[in-house]
Specification:
It is a single chain. By secondary structure, this protein is an alpha/beta fold. It has 2 domains: 3-70 and 376-437, Urease, subunit C, domain 1; 72-350, Metal-dependent hydrolases (TIM Barrel), CATH 3.20.20. The chain is built from 16 helices and 16 strands. The chain has helices spanning 47-51, 92-105, 110-126, 140-152, 176-190, 210-222, 236-245, 252-258, 276-285, 293-298, 306-311, 332-345, 352-366, 393-399, 405-415, 432-437; strands at residues 3-13, 26-37, 40-46, 59-70, 72-78, 129-135, 157-160, 162-163, 196-202, 227-232, 266-270, 288-291, 317-320, 384-387, 421-426, 429-430. Strands 5, 6, 7, 8, 9, 10, 11, 12 and 13 form a 9-stranded parallel β-sheet that branches. A 7-stranded mixed β-sheet has the order 3-2-1-4-14-15-16. It binds guanine and zinc ion. Zinc ion binds at residues 76, 78, 231, 269, 323, 326. It is an enzyme of class 3 (hydrolase). Belongs to the metallo-dependent hydrolases superfamily. ATZ/TRZ family.
Length: 438
């Protein structure tokens, strides 16, 4: 049995922090310890106390003065879009047709999928992200490549092959039947294998025929424990085209509701231009609205109204995500920095504790994986990020004037990126230094 004892300033969340003085919302240890046995956290708290529980052969790793937090979670990302990032000049539908769909046709080639899956998960680890909800391409082989790589690294990831049978080039289309059959086969092979979780993934209403959404709904009924992920209400032209394609529907959300796609494990990317009725329906179903700030700014899609959605009587569950490659950065720190600005443009503020809650426990709750990750609780998986707020000369300089944990977190969010991620543990194994060494 391998065990390691990490020492550092530990921070994890118990609930949403209402204000920066809401101390009972988090647990912070100035000299903290995390004892990890095999892949789990078996003791956590003040270092002096945790050390007493360590055996003689326990390896001790001192990360002081850095912060130890639960690994970051990215609730919406497209792994086949690594070579789409930085595609210039288009809004959503043109961007999909001009750059994204042609790029995704390359994943017909299984070898290409394996290469990109490896590089993608390297990037996740480099940036401190230990769990993602990922879209693969339409090709079954792309999901196989993703899961094989994720399983090899023992990461907890959620993913699915996209189902799309119309309004895209031939090379990225399936059919209602093949989309169903491939999804079934992938669920059989990968869901619950090690830490892998499958998400039923109809891309969005524009690229799925009514028959395909019917099949996606059948899959959700047959597998109620699975996630479902799709896109909703990102862009005005998208919404108008969707209404043309489903003229009977009351609104965009109504389409997904009609096919049985809403529910507690449903992840709805973007949700920018929702009516009150749609927000009510999403709230009532327990579905999650996924905030993708760098993508929403880059594609000029609009401003997600985070605080309104949180505060309304029928509040929405919210997750945060990069949405690479519409999103422009792999880092969840960069993502929340842009998120802060989007929220500011809506006349509101998110405090640094709220941001870091969102990146960890908040996203874990939204993805229904909080029993396993997103906290530093006993018996959860040891997915941990080590953050250095003095990682760059500019950060070091600014740290000279910083006096509180809240200020330090805000600096990490505002100036931090992969350089601030000193180490990442995936299921108790040092994954970032391993990758660099390897
Ligand atoms: N809507 C449908 N597909 C996509 C995609 O790949 N990225 C984004 N941002 N929106 C989408
Ligand atoms: Zn997306």
């Amino acid at each position: 049995m391998t065990s390691i004892l990490l020492r550092g300033r530990t921070l994890s969340f118990l609930r949403w922090p209402e204000t920066i003085d809401d101390h009972s919302a988090w647990r912070y240890e100035e000299d903290g310890g995390l004892l990890i046995r095999d892949s789990r956290i078996v003791a956590a708290g003040a270092y002096a106390e945790v050390e007493k529980q360590a055996g003689e052969r326990t390896k001790k790793i001192d990360h002081r003065p850095h912060l130890l937090l639960p690994g970051f979670i990215d609730a919406h990302v497209h792994f086949p879009q690594m070579q789409v990032i930085a595609s210039h000049g288009a809004e959503l539908l043109d961007w999909l047709n001009t750059y994204t769909f042609p790029e995704e046709t390359k994943f017909q080639n299984a070898q290409h999928g394996r290469r990109i899956a490896r590089l993608f998960l390297d990037e996740m680890v480099r940036h401190g992200t230990t769990t993602v909800a990922a879209y693969c391409s339409v090709h079954k082989a792309s999901a196989e490549a993703f899961f094989a790589e994720s399983h090899h690294r023992n990461m907890l990831n959620i993913a699915g092959k996209v189902m799309m049978d119309r309004n895209a080039p031939e090379g990225v289309l399936d059919t209602p039947q093949s989309g169903y059959d491939d999804t079934k086969a992938l669920i059989r092979e990968w869901h619950g294998k090690g830490r892998q979780l499958y998400a039923i993934t109809p891309r969005f209403a524009i690229t799925s025929s009514p028959e395909q959404l019917e099949m996606a709904g059948a899959l959700c009924r047959e597998h109620p424990d699975l996630h479902m992920q799709t896109h909703l209400s990102e862009n005005h032209a998208e919404i108008a085209l969707t209404q043309d394609l489903y003229p009977w529907s009351r609104d965009y959300t109504d389409i997904y509701a009609h096919y049985g796609l809403l529910g507690k494990r449903s992840l709805l990317g973007h949700c920018i231009h929702l009516s009150e009725r749609e927000a009510d329906a999403i709230s009532a179903s327990g579905s999650v609205a996924v905030f993708c700030p760098t993508s929403n700014l880059f594609l000029g899609s609009g401003l997600f109204d985070y605080q309104r959605f949180r505060r309304r009587d029928k509040a929405l569950r919210i997750a945060a995500a990069t949405d690479v490659g519409g999103g422009t950065n792999y880092s969840m720190l960069r993502t929340m920095d842009e998120g802060y600005k989007v929220i500011a443009l809506n006349g509101e503020k998110l405090n640094p504790f709220q941001s870091f809650w969102q990146l960890t426990r908040g996203n874990a709750e939204a993805l229904s994986v909080v029993e396993m990750v997103g906290t530093l609780d006993l018996d959860t998986d040891a997915d941990i990020v080590v953050l250095d707020a003095r990682a760059t000369p500019a950060m070091r300089l600014r740290m000279e004037t910083i006096e509180s944990l809240a200020e330090e977190l805000f600096l990490l969010q505002t100036l931090g990126d992969d350089r601030a991620v000193r180490e990442v543990y995936v299921a108790g194994r040092a994954a970032k230094s391993d990758m660099i060494a390897g």
